[in-house]
Amino acid sequence: EKTGKVLGEFCRCYKEQYGVALFNSVRYEIEGNGGPQAQLLHRKVPLEDHVIYSGNLFQYIEENKKWRNRFCVVPHNYGLVLYENKLAYERDLPPRVLVNSAGYKILTSVDQYLELVNSSLPGVTPKSGHSPILKCPTDFPLILWHPYARHYYFCVMTGKEQEKWRAVFQDCVRHCNNGISEDSKVEAPAFTDAVRMYRQSKEQYGTWDMLCGNETQVLSNLVMEELLPELRTTIGPRLKGKAQERQRTWIQISDAVYRMVYEQTKAQYDAATAKCEQERPQMESTIRTDMDQIITSKEHLASKIRAFVLPKAEVCVRNHVQPYISSILEALMTPTSQGFAEVREVFFKEVTDMNMNIVNEGGLEKLAEYMEKLSQLVFHPVKMQSCYEKMDQLKLEGLQQRFDVSSTSVFKQRAQIHMRQQMDDAVYTFETLLHQEVGKLQGKDDLCKSIQRILERVLKKYDYDSSTVRKKFFREALLQITIPFLLKKLAPTCKGELAKFQELIFEDFASFILVENTYEEVVLQSVMKDIMQAVKEAAVQRKHNLYRDSMVMHNSDPNLHLLGEGVPIDWSEEYSGQPEAEPAADKRRRAKQVVSVIQDDEGVLPYEVGAEGLLQPGSLKPQEPEEPDPGVPPSSPDGVEEIREALAKENLGDGVEAEQRLTNADVPSASSVQHAAPASPRADAPSEAKVLHATPGSPTPGAETPSPSAGTACHQPGDKETGEEVVPPGSECSPPQPAGTTESSEGVQTEF
């Protein structure tokens, strides 16, 4: 009922905003909008043939309250994919869990997690001395917390591993949060404006932390924001048991409700978008035919609203906004510019190191190897972490309360996405220019000089584009902070009077001109001049290496953008010296991993460690799993030493038997074992998928297995799925389970 009510109101807003967005898109297409031309090239075809990271970590299995060793793979689409062990991954067996991390927070402290859990269910706090809801067997936990969905608990053996995994997980969250495609010039602005208008109708102004993920995830968060407090009031007092059990039950209830809301939301939103798409051709035809009349009608409406609103808005800006613009800008500029400077430094260092290695180790023979690594620099979360973490310094302090900004995370994440894009553009421009030069070079010395010369050219282009991107980011951030504040201030005196302006809009144009949107544009104009002036002054003073607007780089490389239109460069194929191309299957199996796995003798985890081996350090042989007892708290090693001892005994006492268990299917050939490397997602998987598409594994002797072609008929998660989708281990082409169903076997979790 609640989902239907919220989605009904939202879809009405979406339909209204869709017409406005379509008009703006067609108008922009016809009129255009100059602006400085980017100097760096933008990669048209994204890199996909790689694995970002893979390695072992422990996962807490809630079904039996035990810790299990899991092999985690992060493919190019930034889904978290958990396998039983490394061998299961290499054999293409179905994964245990697939996680879309949009909306999650990465916690590295159990105390942080317990604080969030305690606040989620007011009045239910474990008494001191009682065991908490979660006990971690090592000092290095990694917890994925979500306000509505299920939580995921991991731990590793060393602080170095924890740092790497944290950087990887944060990259996954950052990527998945940015789930609304900016390539869509109509649907994306219509959706975000509809969300904003809906929340403003509920007196909720300002930034919103849960505007993350794809459209269905965002709408599910919108529903849960209203539904969860009501559920907590209704269900909270009825929960039974100890405080820990009530907390655990509440998390499960919230997750189950979130899944139901997601399924209902997806169906209703898809129906609304399909209806708008169906009406689009007729609307677009009207816009193109009557463009001049629509513009004239809108300007007439704007002039009337401006005469009514502008005097009040200007007073509000002068008294409550203008004095603080420079302070907000300075708070934004310092960490953002430091982050972009770090991007420049990391790029410079990587290219310089590559150049030195070429001098020491050989010329063109090594170039392919180094350029393959450089092209994937932006996917290296550990190397990029030094850039991203500069934004952690962003503090608006008193300004945050004054302008009712709930959190700075929106601005941090947006700046980090810009940094990532600028790094990739710089790398792609460098490799495109170098690729053009390579055929003309004679020897190692020429190659090194050419690399240095191209590096200097790219850095100049980067400095210019970086300035342009940052200035645009500062203007947008200032508007995001000040406009909601002004709208809230002006609402009591202005909003009630807007209805009288509706009669000024011709009925034929009512789908493309909205009074509410025009009113917001007038309010924006009242503060835009001050914001533009503040950013311009910062550039004139050369603060943080910003360029003046008057400085424009014209045709510095007139043919460069033509180079960017060519076929993507494959350095390994062109310069690795291989006589013939690898088959697609071999190429997939040998996909490069961007981040290397830590090799720590004390912290190495075996392919599979049974929970019994961990939980009973004195046992040399794994025992049969026991049925979980809900009333018994998890019994796990209390420290790192016990786990290490268990792992050592597991390796010594049961290594041969474990290997036999793991290889009871078809035994791979010696050559395939020798060359086995983490495989990338299948080439035929959609590039925008938020989760890795699982495929059936190798056949077991005596078992009937589908042919490779039949394997493609397996249910695969759609691009817009969220949460996690789980395939029971050992299952073949089983149909998807209905939402809300669960499997009782250990470790197999609910399909979403």
TrEMBL record:
PH domain span = 50-174
Q: Which organism is it from?
A: Podilymbus podiceps
Q: Which SMART domains match?
A: PH
The stretch of residues making up the signal peptide is: none
Would you identify the family this protein belongs to, as annotated?
Answer: Belongs to the Niban family.
Comp. bias (Basic and acidic residues): 641-652
Q: Which Gene3D superfamilies match?
A: Pleckstrin-homology domain (PH domain)/Phosphotyrosine-binding domain (PTB)
UniProt cross-references to CDD domains, sorted A to Z: Niban-like
Region feature (Disordered): 615-752
Q: Which Pfam families match?
A: Niban2, PH_Niban2
Q: Where is the composition biased (Polar residues)?
A: 739-752
Recorded protein name is: NIBL1 protein
